[in-house]
Automatic annotation (TrEMBL):
InterPro entries: NRAMP_fam
Region (Disordered): 1-27
Protein name per the record: Natural resistance-associated macrophage protein 4
Residues that span the membrane, as ranges: 86-108, 128-153, 159-178, 190-208, 231-253, 274-297, 327-348, 368-386, 398-419, 431-451, 463-484
Gene Ontology cellular component annotations, sorted alphabetically: vacuolar membrane
Similarity comment text for this entry: Belongs to the NRAMP (TC 2.A.55) family.
This protein's record includes keyword Transport: no
Pfam families in the cross-refs: Nramp
Domain of life: Eukaryota
Main location, first listed in the record: membrane
UniProt topology in membrane: Multi-pass membrane protein
Signal peptide, first to last residue: none
GO molecular function, one term: cadmium ion transmembrane transporter activity
Source species of the chain: Fagopyrum tataricum (Tartarian buckwheat)
Length: 509
């Protein structure tokens, strides 16, 4: 018998752990003309048919860039800063794209999503804390999404249905989601395509009605401008782009396609197609966000109403300026944004809870638990804040802060995991992408840190409350440092082991 040869980069498995068993019926079969090609390395040639089969997860991911919280950030940026922050919106979307591409890469290369990998990589106390933070961010996002949808329902019903009734109606989308999912992932993706198209048509219609100044719009995209009066809106634009639960979601969505991970070329092919469709999806989301910002820049910039605008009254300001119909066009777009984002929130909740806690529950049970975690506090919020728009806007600020706090606990584990060879195999990111990714992460964390500092400086009063915030801040910073140091230590240990293995190979030779 011939002696066995040592594994090389060409023959070793892509990852050391096999992905969990899944129901093949849940997967989309990707079949092309090159299926007989057994070359391990070769990436199949580009195929429009295959791109179509891989298209879907990126558009579901892009919903988080179009949720009611983002729309509120867009309209406030336009009303207060005019066109001057469009350049920041463009670059923030590009930064968000980089983070989402890394999440997709992690899911494709490992066959696991981020929550599952965090469960395996961190000790129990850190894993449970990460899970708690992810759930908290998801609940905060879901409250905004459900309230935004309920506001749209109230407008479309001419005030007959109050906010709390809209919340209950929106809560029922969980069962619609289950029905769609049982009919296959492509049917679910088609529904989201319709909702995105509805948003695009609604906000494009508003853009056409408002007729923003084209020269000023292009200047806002090309010329970076920032003043002390618009710094809060600038921070809000960047802070709204990265949604913690969306990082977990995208790493799971890409596993809906059947990929032969025993072949390096097939994995690279999937990464390529997901990169193309994610880029296209976020380009469309950027255009939609640009429409909203430009409409309110043209309509309210420089007016007394600019500092008081929010989701609850934005449509009525447009109605006063452009007529009755635009109120309903705005409400239809807002409803599509709210409904689609609440469904993706439910979807993300399943992966977060199941991955961190290793739950093996039926889909409808996981959806019911996830939905209840968000809908119960949302109903309470609707009952308390329904009578006061000012209180509702104040709540929205707190929810934005809540989600900003969670961003490091999704981004840092993602960057640490996607950089490690024993996790990613040959698909770990290279030094250039690693540096760029950490710079983006640091920028986003610093920007959100500024937002948190400014917010708590203005809101925190009293010795007891100040002490509690100080203790929380200390623990928060220490946990971030722990996550970073653990990632650095793991990468260093892997590099040392690899050097020792190479030295052993040379000695034996």
């Amino acid at each position: 018998m011939a002696p066995s040869q040592p594994e090389s980069d060409e023959t070793r498995p892509l990852i050391n752990r096999a992905p969990p068993e899944e129901d093949p019926s849940d997967k989309v079969q990707v079949i092309g003309i090159d299926e007989e090609d057994e070359d391990y390395h070769k990436t199949p040639p580009f195929s429009w048919k295959k791109l179509w089969l891989f298209t879907g997860p990126g558009f579901l991911m892009s919903i988080a860039f179009l949720d009611p919280g983002n729309l509120e950030g867009d309209l406030q940026a336009g009303a207060i800063a005019g066109y001057s922050l469009l350049w920041l919106l463009m670059w923030a979307t590009a930064m968000g794209l980089l983070v989402q591409l890394l999440a997709a890469r992690l899911g494709v290369a490992t066959g696991r999503h981020l929550a599952e990998l965090c469960r395996e990589e961190y000790p129990n106390w850190a894993r449970l804390l990460l899970w708690f933070m992810a759930e908290l961010a998801l609940v905060g996002a879901d409250i905004q999404e459900v309230i935004g949808s309920a506001i749209a329902i109230k407008i479309l019903s001419n005030g007959v249905l109050p906010i709390w009734a809209g919340v209950l109606i929106t809560a029922s989308d969980c069962f619609v989601f289950l029905l769609l999912e049982n009919h296959g992932v492509r049917k679910l993706e088609a529904v989201f395509a319709v909702l995105i198209a509805t948003m695009a048509i609604s906000f494009a219609w508003m853009f056409g009605e408002a007729k923003p100044n084209g020269v000023e719009l292009l200047a806002g995209l090309a010329v970076p401008k920032l003043s002390s009066k618009t710094i809060q809106q600038a921070v809000g634009v960047v802070g709204c782009i990265i949604m913690p639960h969306n990082v977990f979601l995208h790493s799971a969505l890409v596993q809906s396609r059947e990929i032969d991970r025993s072949k390096r070329g097939k994995v690279q092919e999937a990464i390529n197609y997901y990169s193309i469709e994610s880029t296209a999806a976020l380009f469309i989301s950027f255009i939609i966000n640009l429409f909203v910002t430009a409409v309110f820049a043209k309509s309210l910039y420089g007016t007394a109403a600019a500092n008081t605008i929010g989701l609850s009254n934005a449509g009525y300001y447009l109605q006063d300026k452009y007529g009755y119909s635009i109120l309903y066009i705005w409400a239809i777009g807002l409803l599509a944004a709210g409904q689609s984002s609440t469904i993706t929130g439910t979807y993300a909740g399943q992966f977060i809870m199941g991955g961190f806690l290793n739950l093996r529950l039926k889909k409808w049970i996981r959806s019911l638990i996830t939905r209840s975690c968000a809908i119960v506090p949302t109903i309470a919020v609707a009952l308390v804040f329904d009578t006061s728009e000012e209180m509702l806007d104040g709540l929205n600020e707190w929810l934005n802060v809540l989600q900003s706090i969670q961003i490091p606990f999704a981004m840092i584990p993602l960057l640490c995991l996607v950089s490690r060879e024993e996790i990613m195999g040959v698909f770990r990111i290279g030094p250039l992408v690693k540096v760029a990714s950490w710079l983006v992460a640091a920028l986003i964390i610093v920007i959100n840190g500024y937002l948190l500092l400014e917010f708590f400086t203005s809101q925190v009063t009293g010795a007891l409350f100040t002490s509690l915030v100080a203790i929380f801040t200390a623990g928060y910073v220490l946990f971030i440092l722990y996550l970073v140091s653990r990632g650095v230590t793991s990468t260093t240990c892997v590099g040392s082991r690899k050097s020792e293995d190479n030295a052993d190979t040379l000695d034996s030779a």
